[in-house]
Design a protein that fits this description.
185 residues, alpha+beta, 2 domains, eight-stranded mixed beta sheet, two-stranded antiparallel ribbon, 19% helix, elongated
């Protein structure tokens, strides 16, 4: 499947029940009130159950996040607690490869909550995309910028403003964090 996106073509891999569990990123949506069929299509060693449809997959599990070689997040309602069994649903086109150099992800930052998240290109709000591993590395550095203020003592700017300017540049360029910091001195 080829998708046109901001004047750039991306070759997106097509996922289905035979390959969605191989090095993928996906955000499942919690489904309440769904009666998971008794005759599930697959049950894993960790007791997660899967039910396939033409459009996507239902997953019944008590663990989300790092799942084998995948990164599957659960977009949950307010009542979800870790280790609780819930059902999530994802369409086949919600899966993205994470073991490649393809730039399928951007970084979304919430400065009020001091958080950063990796997001797939389907929701692209950024001009700059990263491979999954590069986005993970940058998230780690952004988290450090949010949690530690010592680095800011070398600058003559208010910390919150400085943090916002540096992080905003960092998620929209190939420049390293050190290069960006140097430009503010």
């Amino acid at each position: 499947m080829v998708a046109f996106f901001n004047s750039i073509y991306f070759l997106l891999k097509t996922y289905n029940k035979t390959n969605f569990f191989k090095h993928t990123f996906c955000e499942f949506t919690q489904i309440d009130g769904y009666n998971f069929p008794e005759n599930t299509n697959y049950k894993s060693k960790s007791e997660s159950m899967y039910f396939y449809t033409d459009e996507g997959v239902y997953r019944k599990s008590n663990h989300w996040g790092r799942v084998a070689n995948c990164r599957w997040k659960l977009i949950s309602n307010n009542h979800y607690k870790n280790q609780q069994i819930v059902i999530g649903y994802a369409k086949w086109n919600d899966f993205y490869p994470i073991n490649s150099t393809e730039k399928n992800f951007f970084i979304e930052v919430n400065f009020e909550e001091k958080t950063a998240k990796i997001k797939p290109i389907k929701e692209k709000k950024s001009k700059y995309l990263f491979s999954f591993s590069e986005a993970q590395k940058r998230i780690k550095q952004i988290t450090h910028l949010f949690k530690d203020d010592k680095w800011a003592s070398y600058f003559n700017e208010e910390i919150e403003s400085l943090r916002m300017n540096i992080i905003s540049q960092f998620i929209n360029t190939e420049k390293s964090l050190q290069e960006i910091k140097r430009s503010f001195k």
